[in-house]
Design a protein that fits this description.
This protein has 403 residues and is α/β, with parallel strands linked by helices. It folds into 2 domains: 168 residues, Rossmann fold (3-Layer(aba) Sandwich); 164 residues, Rossmann fold, CATH 3.40.50.2000. Helix content is 44%, strand content 14%. β9, α9 and β10 form a beta-alpha-beta unit. α1 runs parallel beside α2, α3 packs across α4 and α8 runs parallel beside α13. The longest helix is centred in the first third of the chain and has 19 residues. It starts with a strand and ends in a 6-residue tail after the last helix.
Amino acid sequence: MTKQVRTLSIVGTRPEAIKMVPVIRELRQHPLTETVLVSTAQHREMLDQVFSLFDLVPDVDLNIMLPRQSLNDIVRRAVEGLDHVYQQYHPDVVLVQGDTTTAFAASLAAFNRKIPAAHVEAGLRSCQLWNPYPEEANRRLIAAIASMHFAPTKKSADNLRRENIPPPSIYVTGNTGIDCLFRIIESRKSHLAQYLPEGFHVHGGRMILVTAHRRENVGGPLEQLCEAVRELALQDPTTWYLYPVHLNPAVRDTVLPRLSGLRNIALTEPLPYGAFVEAMAASYFILTDSGGVQEEAPALGKPVLVLRETTERPEGIASGVAMLVGMEKKQIVQETRRLLNDEFAYQRMVGYGNPYGDGKAAKRTVGALVHWLGLGPRPQEFDEVIPDHPPIEERHAMVAVAD
């Protein structure tokens, strides 16, 4: 009997956990693999929300989070902690996800121990080193030292080939975040109402979901966004704005003073993932600087105004379901009003296909890992056609939140 391959799955933030949950489940079900779940807890509370939602308990929790810690603090503490974990568990492969500081630190610590690293969601590029910061640098550095590259789309795979990554180590899998999204939709659970203030409506008027927290947007750009949302809310009290505010003190210190006190703006704590999916589904459209939301919103038929100057997810822009608007007040106000007032412009951005995934990425990811280890056939690549997904009535069933 073939010995099981021991993998260590490393997560540190909520987006990593969301996209790794389907992979972890698949690894645990595959007869040739076992996995140890390791949390750095780079983001403590928001990460724990995901673990609780999916009934996961980390096998190892490094608990490295400190108030207002620097990126170098995160790297140092994560590398030191993970090095001890690698010595204890002797993994055959380390799996990292995306472009966080945890993912980079885990890859570096594995490289220094000569342990192969597998990169889930590999090959995304903005081609601007400082934007987004530090994510663009993290994912380039991971690509340079990883042994396996699980690209979500063909464009991501092409980016890797242009960087001379060996083609046999590149697999096009689709994005595992869509697997997780479909699982939440299929659960049909409704929790959003309990997080909304009394009198706030997601029905009976159009609701715009707002999220913004990226490091490069903190400060002046975030102030511009707040001024734009405030102006829009004051001019049209029939449109509602839901803004789950990130726990980063620098974000909260900017957002709360500028947007508190308006009847049609709800500033909430970060929503648990299930409730956040409900909020996306209930929204008319979304203003966001999040990469994950750019991937998830098309599966829900929601246009996205991307609060960034560039994106490493060009597929949504190319298909017309997303638009780059930046973080200047004038542009945000203009494009928001356009979608609110121009039905033709709105309908042009509404799409029910998703260029990022079809709900089967985790299975392809584990199949790719097994293939790279010489234990199975190479899986068929994700084809970026309009994928199968839950019928539209299922996707909207979960938004029946009482007024």
